[in-house]
Amino acid sequence: MANYKILPQLGFGEAVRLASSRLSVFKGRSRRSEFWWWLLVVLACNFILSTFVTDLLVGCLLSIVVMFAALSVTVRRLHDTGRSGAWVYISYALGAAGQIVTGTSSVMNDYIEIAMSGNVDKLMAFFEDNAGSFFLIVLLGIAWLLSCLVVFFMVLIDGKPEPNKYGDSPKYVLVES
């Protein structure tokens, strides 16, 4: 039976340096600590940008760009659990499609304007006239949310100590007896 030693958890600085140096690396494996610290940085950047950008289309496009900074580390995190990165690509594609449909649709800008006016009758008529657009936006949103939940539960799982088809474990080191 193989004997494995667990390496110390990555701290914030080390995890951010490692993840940022591998933004275009989609091979190999990443530890949970690298993933979660880097995701915190990406989400903070996304929040800060969304606070200052008031144009819906520009905000949606910026959100897509910023979230792509987490793509490679998420793929490597799934690799650590022995799973394909395809799950992440599906989730990102659905999220990007939803952002693009929402950001390029005048329906959402008009909806926000009417909703802010407080005119319920006008809002209900608007919903009836644009039911197809709202249905598409809601459908994409639900599909994206479900795909995010699948990926979320997958990244929570600890990687196996043994090497897998994606490489050696970044957390466990084989100790020779």
From TrEMBL:
ATP-binding found in the keyword field: no
Domain of life assignment: Bacteria
GO cellular component: plasma membrane
TM stretches of this protein: 35-50, 56-75, 87-112, 132-157
Coiled coil (UniProt feature): none
A Pfam family this chain is assigned to: DUF805
InterPro entries (alphabetical): DUF805
Protein's UniProt name: DUF805 domain-containing protein
The species this protein was found in: Prevotella aff. ruminicola Tc2-24
